[in-house]
Predict the structure.
Amino acid sequence: MVSAKALASTRRMEGVQRSWYKFSRNRLSIVGLGTVALVTFLALFAPLVAPYPEHASAFVDFANASRPPSTTYPFGTDVVGRDIMSRVFFGFRFSLVMGVVVLSLVVPPGVILGLVAGYYQGTWVDTVIMRTTDIFLAVPPLVLALAICSVLTPNLFNAMLAVSLMWWPWYCRLVYGLASTLRNEFFVVSAELMGASKFHILFREILPNCISPIFTKMSLDMGWVILIGSSLSFVGLGVQPPRPGLGTMVADGSKYLPDQWWIAVFPALAIVLVVLGFNLLGDGLRDMLAAEEV
Amino acid sequence: MRSTMTDLLTVTDLKKHFIVGQKGIVRREPITVKAVDGVSFAVREGETFGLVGESGSGKSTVAYTIVGMYQPTAGDIAFRGQSLFGKGKRRRPGLKKEIQIVFQDPGSSLNPRRSIKEIVGFPLRLHRGDGNLLSSIQELLEMVELPADYLHKYPQMLGGGEKQMVAIARALATDPSFVILDEPTSALDVSIQAKIINLLLRLQKEFHLSYLFITHDLSLMRNVASRVAIMYLGKIYEIAEAAEFFRNPYHPYTQMLLSSIPVVSEAEEELKPSKITSRGEIPSPVDVPSGCSFHPRCPEGADRCSRDEPPMVEVEPGHTVRCHRFGGGRDAP
Amino acid sequence: MENNLLLDIKDLHVHYDVFGGTLKVLDGVRFSVHGGEKVGLVGETGCGKTTTMKAVLRVLPKPPARITAGQIYFKGRDILDMDSGELGRVRGEGIAMVFQDPTAALNPVFTIGKQLEAAVKYSAARGKRLSGKQIRERAVEALKEVALPDAERLLKNYPFQLSGGMRQRVCIAMAVAGTRELIIADEPGTSLDVSIQDQILRLLRNLADEKNTSIILITHTLGVVREMADRVYVMYAGNMVEVAPTKELFSQPLHPYTVGLMNAVPKLTGGGIADGIPGRIPDYLDPPPGCRFHPRCDRAMEICEQEKPRFYRVNEDHEVACFLYE
């Protein structure tokens, strides 16, 4: 006699295996997953894995300044003698935090507004929500972010605020498109005819069918947000020196190109690595979350 | 429409028009699709009333209006003698559980992101309150002859016929008295269709259900319905008891459809009226022909047919037709 | 009619690689069509009929599908052996397929004329230098062959402006624009009304009779095949189980599956519908040993579980894959 609990966990195992199968069809998705895992690990355990953790903050060692990559300093040192590799590891922290915080701020309201607007498509609710979205979308994003950051004190927090403000409309639009189509599906109509509450219809019938595009977009957006955050840091409006934001480091290092190339190039490659990793992961998520067609 | 004690659902002069656009630049006239344009019939308790017609006939619109997806443009629908609509055309809430519908396409009537347990359990939870939910769900699955472990499956893992059985279980979860079946087996293979139809007939007997059965498959209708009505471009053109309908069709449209059914045996060939080839395409419901809507395709057209709309008349007891050729009979009640 | 064998599928095996293993879909399919013949292929969803036809045209999705064995001879040459040039000629002038859903088969952003002309260019005009005018003429001719009136105006229309029946005719026109030999029609008219479907089937029948084009009619509706086909194959779970001339099949169905199907069809004479065939189609991951139908067969014997039945000849043209007729 197999217990119900055992059966349930077998089913879950099978579900996980099936999901992994779909995810791993594309080799690159696995590369993406590995890259993101690596970056997350380095960010989380930076104080432990970085060779010179103290270099991540104010630190000078002019004796070892501007050293090219070597065994002691794999990515070389910058003009004040700080190890670039350690700083890159710590830099990942800022990038990931920015991505996670922005998406956490942006996704819930964007999705909810999109659901409501899509369900009530054609009514005043739709008009109000979507026209507001249009207004936000009409402003060039980087310009808006620059404007906000220059009015407020330049720091990471305000950069995140600025990016969030111009990011939520995309989720609203995405979900609006999905919800307005889905609300005419027979399974939604059936729930309405049963007498389901609006909450049930929006969050139990429609939303689960939007999960795949939302998660895929979130993964790709991690890359974008990090890129925009690095851009803001590059122009001096995000992470402020001496803190090791990746964009900030690229900005610093750009002054010393091409002779001391390593000061700018390694942080830049790190940005590329993170963004690429999330993009590839996003592709894999899309494959994995697609509702199965037998 | 005379309503007797045994009439469960009475539809009186039902109209449903949709405005689909605007015509003209200066004088903006609305373009109306008269999907349903004056339909009257009654379904008796315990019977299966069949509604047959081609695409554009409006049969699905009738179904959707009865079940509450659409508000009628005109006319009335009464359940057990009482109109479905209270003041201001709002539907009475208590009726949501009495009238249920099974849709045509099993693929889209079940949410792919919800398990069978959730799909069938939801109406139970809404309408039957607490009590042992799980065992009620299992009972329902058993009723439609699905194995108990299907609880945990998702719709994509099921075949078309099984999905339809889940849809039927869901419809019966609220303990309804009237079920509308909108082409329930059109998308299914013939052997699975047989299983589902026989299941539906068994359930009907067991739970004293009344069915409104909609299909374009006349051979299927012959074996399912006790009375049949045929629709064309929003109106009903003939109603009769099933055997009479197939043995003795009066209306040219009925004869035309019956003559083109593909059958599988000689015995059935004998039954078919002589071949009437369909002329031309089915007109769109936006542009309904004047007079009798069927006149452009009718092999028997006369002058009157393009001018006046024929009334529904009773040509034999229980058999009504809408055609000028039989205008001499009494007007149908 | 043995002499002009147009298409001859021998012992075709097709497998699909999926999560959990391999779906052994086609398990030794045999199928043949002669010149000028109308052959029906009847089978329910999932039996492999579309897979078979896609294999003929070599349009199976290559992963996950694999052709593991068998030959497909078209006019004596094995399609599976052909290089892309020869295959292109076969697809252009030899075999054409008309799909089930005409709306999905037509590109909504191009006019009918553009699509028809493309069909002509890649089939009849392949390799020949036809001028634009000649291509257009051929397109108009094709439309006339499928009895579509007002061909000149139709060429300028977009698919959404046409009714379902007309779209289906356009698809058939695209097929006959270049092809003279074999047309594979997959559930033609299923999504259309009975009266329109009737017109489409009659059109196909005329094409076959007048132009000596062979037709393979794939359907799950027995009644359609009875009116259209000269010979009928019945397919179940990746195998052909019975083949006979139409009249013979309907008056004397032999295979228990065929009998079950015939019984399950609702009859105009009334009397209720017999219960369908118990059970489900087999899981292709782990199909039943021996005869794939035996778990659902009410006349199964011991040997049915152990060995796979060959085709046994019962009459001159009537063969059954069933041990009952050994």
Chain A has a mean pLDDT of 87.
